[in-house]
Structure formats: structure tokens, C-alpha cells
Amino acid sequence: MQFKNQSVIVTGGSSGIGRATALEFAKRGANVVVSDINEKGGQETCDSINNNGGKAIFVKTDVSNSQEVQTLVETCLKEFGQLDHIINNAGIGQGLYFFDQITDEHWAKTIAVNQTGVFYCMKAALKVMKAQKSGNIVNTASAAGIRSAPRMGAYAASKHAVVGMTKTAAAEYGKFGIRINAICPTVIETPMGDSYVGVNEDLQKMMIKSVPMRRFGQAEEVARTICYLCSEDASYINGIAMPIDGGSNA
What are 181-229's pLDDT values in tens digits? Predict the structure, then answer.
């Protein structure tokens, strides 16, 4: 119960890493605000928490809309009185394209959600956390944010930006008792991961071969890492982009 009497916002909480993270925080005692554009999935995450003795509410949020993000943070404060942690996990991945095949629409949407959405969430949370002189932010970047990602140009650009924002904000706000870190997962067995490799058996085999542990990651493994970064056990960790990739980056 390390997060008892604390509150956390998890964006992209309707499935995959977001859902696993919301459930893990709840298991450790936190009050959880689940956010997503997918109402059905988000409410299912909340129901799972509430039906098991935890406390969670759902707030439908498009993170690429600054006003909706502001409402999300205000709702957390109104409901739980404080914002101790925010996990900026909402993101999209759309197909595999070489750079000259990326459409303007694909580029704009990817950047709006994956990059600008994280910016809006960080900005809104930092105002609260700076005033209370405490807080943790964990941004979901990607292995594609710390190396090349062929045929994923827009996604890679957005995730490299997340790493850059994380490091810069960590340097700016550490003096206020706020720690800001990023996680960089490789392929995780989630709906998004499956959308890239699940339909292509040859690609799946090739990707697994590139992982020293010879398997893809599980959402629960990522969730536990996020909770670690928000815990007192990680009290001097700030501004990192942590690979969660079974050794791939090595």
C-alpha cells in the first residue's frame, strides 16, 4: 500500500500499458483517475478497480485538446484533493510507412497526440505540483524514442520529443521536489503492439530474435516499472529515459 492516500492520473488507461498501470497503482493503494477517449474501455478499467476495493473515476479526455486536459487535472483535484503522480501514457501508432509515404494528416495526428498531448498534460500537472512542491511524472516514450525506428518516422519523431521534454522539464523542476522520467518500452503484448507485429508472422519472429530475452514484454512488467519510478525507492532518479526492452538497446 505504498501509494495509500495518494492520487494518480493515468492517460490512455482503457487498455494495454495504461490499464495495467492503473490497476497496479490501485493495488498499491492509490486513488486513480483513468483517462482515455475510449469510454467503454476506460470505464471497464475503473470497474475492475472499484469492484476490487479500490477507488477510481473515469474522465473522457482527448489529450490533444488543452482544455480537456485542464478539465482532467481539475477533476482529479476536485475528487481527490491532490495530484501526486501523472502517467502520460496516451498515444497512437498508425501503420508502417517510409518517410516519403507519410501523409500530412498522419504526421499531424501522431504529433498532436503523442507529443503535444504529453506537453499539455505535463504543463497542467506541473502547475499543481510546483505549488505543492512535490509530484512525479512518468511519460511513456518508446524504444523508438532513443534509437532509429525504420518505417515509423512520425512515431519516432514524437517519442524522441517526449524524451527531450522529459529531460528538460526534469532539469527545470527538480528543485521543486518534482521528479520527471520517461519509459522506453520495445514491443509489448498490447493492442498497439499487436497492430504492428501481430499480423505479420515473419516480422514477429525477426523482432523476437532482436530481443536478448527472446520474448516480448508484458504490460504488467511496464506497469511495475512505472510504479517503481513513482515510489520512494526511486527518490533520486530524475530525468532518465529508461529502456524496458529485454536488453534490445544493449
Answer: 999 999 888 666 555 555 667 777 877 888 888 888 899 999 999 999 9
- Residues 94-112 have pLDDT tens digits of 888 999 999 999 999 999 9
Q: How is the chain classified by DSSP, letter by letter? A: -TTTT-EEEEETTTSHHHHHHHHHHHHTT-EEEEEES-HHHHHHHHHHHHTTT-EEEEEE--TT-HHHHHHHHHHHHHHHS---EEEE--------B-GGG--HHHHHHHIIIIIIHHHHHHHHHHHHHHHHT-EEEEEE--GGGSS--TTBHHHHHHHHHHHHHHHHHHHHHGGGTEEEEEEEE-SBSSHHHHHHHTT-HHHHHHHHHTSTTSS-B-HHHHHHHHHHHHSGGGTT--S-EEEESTTTT-
Query: Nearest CA to 109 among 90, 124, 131, 134?
Result: 90
The domain locations on the chain are: 7-190+218-241
Q: What is the pLDDT of residues 25-63, one digit of tens each?
A: 999 999 999 999 999 999 999 999 999 999 999 999 999
Q: Can you state the angle between helices 66-80 and 117-132, rounded to 10 degrees?
A: 40
Q: Which CATH superfamily is domain 7-190+218-241 in?
A: NAD(P)-binding Rossmann-like Domain (3.40.50.720)
**From the candidates 155, 173, 196, 228, which is the catalytic residue?**
155
Residue 196 annotated in active site? no
Span 168-185, average pLDDT: 98
